[in-house]
Amino acid sequence: MRNLPDVYRGVDALRAALAPLRQEGKTIALVPTMGALHAGHLSLVEKAREHADIVIASIFVNPKQFAPGEDFESYPRTEESDLQKLADHNVFGVFAPNAKEMYPNGFATSIQIEGPALGLETDHRPHFFNGVATVVAKLLLAVLPDIAVFGEKDYQQLRVIERMAKDLHLPTKIVGAPIVREHDGLAMSSRNEYLDAKERQTAIAISQTLTTARNALRNGESWIDVRKKALAALKLSGFATDYFELRHAKHLGTPIETSGARILVAAKVGTTRLIDNIEV
Ligand code: AMP
Prior knowledge:
Blueprint: E1 6-8, H1 11-23, E2 28-33, H2 39-51, E3 54-59, H3 79-88, E4 93-95, H4 99-102, H5 121-124, H6 128-143, E5 147-151, H7 155-167, E6 173-177, H8 197-218, H9 223-237, E7 240-247, E8 262-269, E9 272-279
Parallel strand pairs: 1-4, 2-3, 2-5, 3-4, 5-6
Antiparallel strand pairs: 7-8, 8-9
Helix pairs in contact: 6-7, 8-9
The structure holds adenosine monophosphate.
Adenosine monophosphate binds at residues 33-34, 40-41, 43-44, 150-151, 153-154, 177, 179-180, 187-190.
């Protein structure tokens, strides 16, 4: 068992710890998370290590990306075991601020983003990407990493963050990492913990439907037919679908051709909302 990584609760302390390392010429990677870490998060840490000398993870359940009535209160918070996992993956330090550090009284700034943020998640969670963009900008400016790693699991989010980093001339390279799945195909997610045994069984349908749809598209079926069948399959399995859409993999607009496009889905089983996506 390795020593736990140092935990920084404030931006000043974190910056003070990083300054000498930067002076030594060490490159720094940031892996932002909301904690309740699983193998998907840890794959981002591994990817980060490929690109930089030092990995910093952040753990912050960001209130600004939850709307009233969403799962902010019940979101799993497991800091102790998260720190152990990060230690096992040789993370140098963890930035785990409280909400007051990130959003002190009088906080009045937010980042509004359009482009890849339009549609999909925004149609169902209109507050979401402004909350994400604001917190990620703050994290990137707090750490000023050389690179930051984000999962393709949250595919639209990855594109939104790339856009924001470019638009704001942030000095960090944004790197995407592939989706890590359970053995039965379910994309790993901290929210999978909400699923009871029956819902967990149902949840398999989401990746199965994506794979079936991807294969049908590759075999030349029309998107209209593929989508109709996918929506029916999800409904039959017990999912209430928010969206099942085909998008251009880069800008997330309507694709001209299916090859290289991406299918993105969000659907609810019981009260748990799951998202997933697949390259065509
Ligand atoms: P979260 O803690 O859910 O906000 O996720 C933090 C980061 O981990 C985001 O960049 C996610 O896209 C990424 N992530 C979450 N689940 C997975 C997964 N199953 N595979 C790869 N990356 C993931």
